[in-house]
Amino acid sequence: MKKKRSPKKSSHDASPVSVQIARQAIALTIAGSDPSGGAGLQADLKAFQQNGVYGMSVVTLLTVQNTMGVKRVETMPVDLVEQQLEAVVEDIEPLAIKTGALGTPAIVRAVAERLKSYHGDVIVDPVLISKHGDLLGGDSMVYAYRKYLFPVATLVTPNRYEVEALLGRKLTDLDSICDAAHELLQFGPEYVLIKAGVIDGLRHHVLADQEQTISAAVKDVPGNHGHGAGCSLSATIAAALTRCARTHPQAKRVRAAVEFGIAAVHAAVTLTPPLGKGCRPVEHRVLDKGTSGKLD
After folding, report:
1. Per residue in 155-211, pLDDT tens?
2. DSSP classification of residue 290
3. Within a domain: 244
4. 136 is in which domain, residue-wise?
5. In which element (H, E) is residue 258 found?
6. Where is the Pyridoxamine kinase/Phosphomethylpyrimidine kinase domain (predicted)?
7. Residue 13 placed within a domain
8. Residue 6: inside a domain
C-alpha cells in the first residue's frame, strides 16, 4: 500500500502579515482630472496612497491632456461640484483638504463658502499659470482666490509666476519673494509657501507666517520633466499633515509637513520615469521618501 503524502500548504496558510494602518489619516482633493495620470487629482490620490492616507476626490474639471500638453478642458457645473463636496464631507470627514485646478471663479467661491465651516487643514494650490506661462482664468480667477479661498486656507502654495499674477508685479530675487510671501499673508492664509524656482542653480522654497520666514533649497534637476510636481507637493504636504499629531503646535506641524513634501518631491523629480514624449511626470511611487531638516 502506498503511503499517503500530506498535502502541501498553500501560501494562503501562511501566518498573517502584521500591517499598521493610520485609519484616521483621510484627505480630500478638489481638483481637475489628468487622464495621463501625471498631475491633477490622479497625482493627488497617488501621493495620498503612497503615504498611507485614505484619499477622496471631488472633480472640478475634465481635461484632454498628456505629457505634451492640454488639448481640451471641460469645467463641471458649480452645483455638481457643490454636491460632490457635500456628499463626501457629510459622510467621511477628512483631516486635510487640498484644492488644485478649480476652473472658474464661481467654483472657487462655492468651494470657499463650504470650507468656512470645515475645521481641518486646507491646502490651496492656486493653479493660475500653465507650464507654458499662460494665465488660466484671467483676473477674475486671481480676484476669487484672494477674496474667497485664501482667507479659509491653512497653507497656500503658489509658484513664483502665480505670485506675480496674484500681486501684479514681477519678482526679481529671493528678497522680493520673501517680501511677497508676507504680502500674500495679508489675504488671510495662515501660512504661505512660495515655490520660487531656480535661483543660482538651486531650487528655492520660501515658507512664511506672521512670525517668521524660512527658506529651503534643493539641487535643481535639469531636464524636460516635472509634470505634476506642484500637485504632488501640495498633496504630499496634505498627506503629511494628516499623519502629524494634532497635539503638536500648528507651526511645528506645518513646517514638518513642508519639509517632508519638499524632500519627497525632490526625490520624485530625481527619479523621473522615462514616460511620455513631452514633459515627463514625476515618480509618484517615491512620494513617501521625504526627510526633514532642510529648512533654515
Report:
1. 999 999 999 999 999 999 999 999 999 999 999 999 999 999 999 889 999 999 999
2. -
3. yes
4. 22-286
5. helix 250-270
6. 34-282
7. no
8. no
